[in-house]
Amino acid sequence: MTAEGHLLFSVASVVMVHQLQISPDISQGDWLHLIPGALAGALLPDIDHPKSMLGQWVRFISVPISRLCGHRGFTHSLLAILTGVILFRTQLPVSWSVPADFYQAVIVGYLSHLAGDMLTTAGIPLLWPVRWRFCIPLLGSKANKRAERSVALVVLVASFYLPAHWEVWWDHVRELILAQISARL
After folding, report:
1. 27, 28, 134, 161: which could join 126 in a potential S-S bond, CB 3.0 to 4.6 Å?
2. pTM for the complete prediction?
3. Of the candidates 4, 7, 11, which has an alpha carbon nearest to the alpha carbon of residue 35?
4. How deeply is 3 buried, as exposed, middle or buried, from its count of CB atoms within 10 A (0-12, 13-18, 19+)?
């Protein structure tokens, strides 16, 4: 996925998380924290690629990570997210007050980047260091900007059509499905 695709997808994702009210901090969050947080999170996984947008800004970090792990290695895994959360929680100076909505939007942006890269044929090593690559190749092998924009637009539009209290809605859907299954048995 291209950087533009990741950025669009991350904004759409944080809007969806906001609408679904999955996190109180995001559902009540300030959009001036949510959007920059999601955008920052969307760029973070590609710090392992010196020619990426973020990699060009911080080459002194990007080049060593690239040499050590390669592109779409460690930084495209659940272990990277867990490591980042632990480091953020334990190593950040107490005097730095990072708003909870920004912090959680970064995680949503990061996860949206991983989801976006899973939509390509190359996939990602979600369980790194295990070499299995997870992919749902909807976007093909090359950057397909039209498809990337379409996916982001579908997520964004879907987020506005999701009911505010999705748990109740999902319970109704589940009951309908179970009723159909039991009627067929």
Report:
1. 134
2. 0.81
3. 11
4. middle
